[in-house]
Design brief:
Blueprint: E1 2-8, H1 11-18, E2 26-33, H2 40-51, E3 60-66, H3 75-89, E4 96-103, E5 106-114, E6 116-117, E7 122-123, H4 129-144, H5 150-153, H6 165-173, H7 178-190, H8 195-204, E8 207-211, E9 217-221, E10 226-228, H9 229-233, H10 237-244, H11 253-263, H12 266-322, H13 326-335, H14 337-422
């Protein structure tokens, strides 16, 4: 289970992210504990209000818990992981919020704690929390018998195709699959040994090497989108400079954008638009099916919840009816029978709670399997689009080279003409 955490402020921004039902197909508020409020937004407002009595600006600790891609983890796995995080970070007993997200047939969890100790009115320090989360993550892989990622064995083998939220959002803007895009950059990097070969390989895929605003290396695509090379290749700036030299001699982003714009003709633009339109056309029935499935699944969950609530009320009435009242109740208390019935009722409550949780998880598991099968069709469309874009990027490079050759030819003819004119006969 991959654990990623950070100290942060921005209470309302985080609350909106956790309750985002546009980017997530299902959102379930699993727990809100230690607060007067019963909503995520109000709970985070409480944390912010308490933090004002301190100088702490990063008053929350947020952790995302992601099981392996092929694993549907039950709630107990997440609860145990969260308990270990609390113990290792010293956040046990702190107010917290737990939210489940589901998207594309996968389920993950966000857990958020208040860092403010309300008794002492100071923030709880979280030293080396990234190392602690990494250690807990490794233990969870071993404990559950999941395949241990190579990066846990040796840091140099950490998966370079993992991407951050910022990278995912950038890929979303350009209609690319972030995994495939990151793999492309990584392949270009692994197949190059100097700036010349790297620059040529980038151009083969429709990207131009440029100098970024912060004196770093970036790549620019035919749409003018700027990609940080250290981020998308997973290579540190120092290693980039060792292989590519200093970025100063390279053209800046605006120069490259102007250069690309000149080489893009109307035919190529129409070709690119047609690929985008075909992608949208292919996605229309899939999006409709996804939305229909989402609605059906939510209706099934709502129906189960209503059914369980009605059954719980009936069972509660039966438990209350078992307890003797009046003089009989006094006598049963004296003989100890009242306590036996009460103990039986408590055991039944626990058993029924487990039963209801198991029923709910069974429905969720079945729905996740259905959604995963649908996601396979989505992945096929994405793969076709990715392959089309690979071809398009190479065409962009071709048109760019043709434009450069034409420009050089024109400049050469102008030079010859001027030179011949200057060397003409004098009177």
């Amino acid at each position: 289970m991959i654990l990623e955490g950070n100290q942060r402020g921005g209470a309302r921004q985080l609350a909106r992210h956790l309750m985002n039902t546009q980017d997530n197909e299902h959102v379930e508020v699993y727990e809100i504990s230690g607060f007067m409020s019963d909503s995520v937004m109000d709970a985070f407002d409480e944390i912010h209000a308490v933090s004002r009595g301190t100088k702490c600006r990063q008053f929350m600790f947020s952790v995302s818990l992601n099981p392996p891609q092929d694993v549907i983890a039950p709630p107990e796995y997440f609860e145990k992981a969260i308990a270990q995080i609390e113990e290792r970070t010293g956040l046990t007993g702190q107010p917290r919020v737990i939210v489940f997200h589901e998207k594309e047939g996968r389920r993950h969890v966000h857990a958020v704690w208040s860092r403010i100790d309300a008794n002492e009115m100071k923030a709880i320090n979280l030293p080396h929390y990234k190392l602690k989360l990494n250690d807990i993550s490794k233990q969870l892989y071993l404990e559950h018998g999941w395949h241990l990622p190579q990066g846990f064995i040796d840091k140099q083998y950490r998966n370079p195709l993992n991407f951050t939220r910022a990278e995912w959002q950038q890929a979303k803007r350009t209609h690319d699959d972030p995994r495939m895009l990151k793999q492309l950059f990584r392949q270009v990097w692994d197949g190059s040994d100097n700036q010349h070969s790297f620059q040529a390989a980038l151009k083969d895929h429709g990207f131009w090497l440029a100098r970024g605003d912060r004196r770093g290396f970036v790549a620019v695509d035919y749409k003018g989108e700027v990609y940080s090379l250290s981020r998308w290749t997973g290579v540190k700036s120092k290693e980039l400079k060792q292989r590519l030299n200093e970025p100063e001699p390279l053209p800046d982003v605006q120069q490259v954008k102007a250069e690309i714009s000149q080489s893009m003709n109307d035919v190529l633009k129409r070709h690119i638009d047609s690929v985008h339109q075909q992608r949208k056309k292919d996605y229309v029935p899939l999006k409709r099916t996804i939305q229909t499935m989402k609605t059906q699944h939510q209706s099934q969950r709502d129906a189960l919840e209503q059914q369980q609530q009605m059954r719980w009320q009936q069972e509660e009435q039966q438990r209350v009816a078992r307890l003797p009242r009046g003089l009989s109740g006094i006598w049963h208390r004296f003989t100890g029978k009242y306590q036996k019935i009460k103990t039986q009722n408590q055991a039944e409550v626990q058993d029924n709670d487990i039963r209801d949780r198991d029923e709910k998880q069974a429905v969720i598991n079945r729905q996740l399997h259905e959604r995963q099968r649908l996601q396979e069709r989505v992945s096929e469309v994405r793969e076709r689009y990715h392959q089309d874009m690979l071809v398009l990027r190479k065409e962009v490079r071709h048109y760019h080279e043709v434009g450069e050759q034409a420009l050089r030819h024109i400049q050469s003819e102008e030079y010859v003409h001027r030179h011949a004119h200057s060397m003409g006969p004098r009177l």
